[in-house]
Amino acid sequence: MSEFKKKCIPDQSNLRDYQKECIDIIDSCKDGSHLIVLPTGSGKTYVFSHIPRRGRVLILSHRDELVHQPEKYYVNEKVYDEDGNELPACTFGVEMAGEKSNGEDVVSASVQTMVHRLDKFDPNDFDMIITDEAHHAVAPSYKKIYEYFKSRIHLGFTATPDRHDKDDLHHIYDDILYKKDMTWGIRQKYLTDIECYQVDVGYNLNGVKRQMGDFQTKGLGDEMTREECLDATVEAYNKYHTGQTLIFAVNVAHAMKIAERIDGARVVVGDTPSTERAQIFKDFTERKFPCLVNVMVASEGTDLPLIETIILARPTQNASLMTQMIGRGLRPYPGKSALRLIDCVGISKNKPIDVGYLFGLNLDVLPHNKRKQLNGVRITEMKEKVDFLMDGPDSWIDNVRIVKLFKDDNPEIDFMGINFTVLSDNSLCVSIGNGKSFTIEAENELGETHLVYKNGKKTSREKATRRTQEAINWLHAWLLKNGSDSRSLWDASRAKRWGDAPATDAQIAYIAKIANERDVSLTSIAKQKLTKAQASSLIEHILSKEIKHKSTVAYSAPAKKTYGSSSYGTYYGGSYYSGRSKTAAKSRRRRSKKGKKR
User: Fold this and answer.
1) Sequence ranges of the domains in the chain
2) What is the CA angle 319-320-326, rounded to 5?
3) Are the CB atoms for 467 and 449 separated by under 8 Å?
4) How far apart are the first and last CA of the chain?
């Protein structure tokens, strides 16, 4: 293993508190492979360039423009030993195309080049490997490099792993060593808040092919340059933008056509000469023109301090790309309270990433008629707003649609026949009656989750992490062994057979009674013909509300007739008893009557 005689510690006097905290944790961690999650704009390159070095370092990047980015931090920073004595400056080499390293302290390499030059290096040449944008680490080229070198430690840095890469990342990284997300960055004032708008521009991506995990550029460009989409995109700009606006377009033709429709707009693309590009950026920051349309030039590493509005006219299924685009506008600027984000949406069977996904929110849980109520809501307040909008009868009966959308987005997950409810943060919850439930939390960046058991007001969360499918498998086995009395609640096939039938008159009457007692308005579903399952879901949610007054709605139910099972249990004569036999239910009613006589 390549090790220095003395530990090299870069000057850390200018680090922010969280950057110092992250570096201290890395410096004291065990050997192995670790993932570090830091939000866009938090200075991840600055962080990894200031990690104390015990030996030579290899940095891997997937894009050529990132290879030279760390150099200024390594070569310009003073370095000390553990006793505070200054050491010689760090040397920095590059492996990319025509550039070759020559034994430098730090080697920054393009993966596409490095994978073909491995025989130039000894497997023990590097003490530390750093992977920039670690969500790409699942690619075969990266794996070949990792397998070749015998480094002491491997650190992967990322902002947002792609949802489709989580399973593979789990096999590369042992754990998440340090994590700060964009919500944290916003609350700490390191990033600006985001004021979110979704605008339907009329696109239909059902006919657009996919390529390398995202929409094929040509097909996407053809659809987005239809006159209807162009006019709607420009209308969204005119109606919603504020201040200096950056628009992300699909390709050059798309960018030019948008710019033609906006007064004073300018375009910058990959072929724009660097000097001209720099002047355009300078003029934009000085407010000499109001709108800049770009084709992935401003997605990463671009110094544009003044961006007040971003319009995403380039739908994507790539979480990393989405993060980079939004990240351009999160830099604080005097007088800027929030970034206004306008997300152009439409129809697509392959769902594009939306801003909610980057913040752990599943906006699909909302009925479409409520989506517009999120326009103008800041991302730090979005979860509370979504939960508020979900807390109504039309959302309570909408679980079948929500579950289907979740399964479409996660085809690799088998629910094992469990009757899950999908929550706004993508957690999966199943009720087993008597106020008891299991929740499988939303996955972290490595695809790991925790099981949570709730019994009334008591909640217990397991310490060990599981894969989502492992958690479902374990829960299914537990339910088969321990949940026979509540099977009508958690078994999706039984719930469906019973639940697809029309709601009974008794259910409808009971809903009216308890809704009246709790001041729950049923106006939004007044014209719907409810199924038993929908009625059951309504009853469970309504019963969770506090009673405001005694009902004025007349209600009487047959004394002995069973009306079916609900997520609150089995329905007997106006009461719900979960996991109890008819005899137990009758016995309980008799005890209740005796109590009333006393």
Assistant:
1) 9-180, 190-390, 412-484, 496-597
2) 85
3) yes
4) 83
Torsion over CA: 248, 252, 253, 258 (sign) = positive
Strand partners, 338: 193
Is 190-390 in the same CATH topology as 9-180? yes
Q: Residue 136 has what pLDDT?
A: 85
Token pair listed for 469: 């499918």
Half-sphere exposure of 158 (CA within 13 A, CB side): 28
Provide the 10 A C-beta neighbour count for residue 409: 16
CA 370/CA 483 separation, integer angstroms: 36
Question: Distance (Å, rounded) from C-alpha 428 to C-alpha 421?
Answer: 6
Residue 428: which of 472, 397, 390 has the closest Cα? 472
Q: How many CB atoms lie within 10 A of CB 76?
A: 11
The answer to whether domain 9-180 has CATH 3.40.718.10 is no
The answer to whether 551 touches 516, Cβ cutoff 8 Å, is yes
As its CATH architecture, domain 190-390 has 3-Layer(aba) Sandwich (3.40)
DSSP letters spanning 345-404:
EEE-SSPPP-HHHHTT--GGGS-HHHHGGGTTEEGGGHHHHHHHHHSSHHHHT-HHHHHH
Beta strands, E only, 40-192: 57-61, 79-80, 86-87, 92-95, 106-110, 128-132, 153-158, 175-179
**pLDDT value, residue 553:** 55
pLDDT higher than 50, residue 578: no
**pLDDT tens column, 386-419:** 888 877 777 777 777 778 778 877 888 999 999 9
Cα angle at 533 between 528 and 539, to 5 degrees? Answer: 85
DSSP single-letter state for residue 54: S
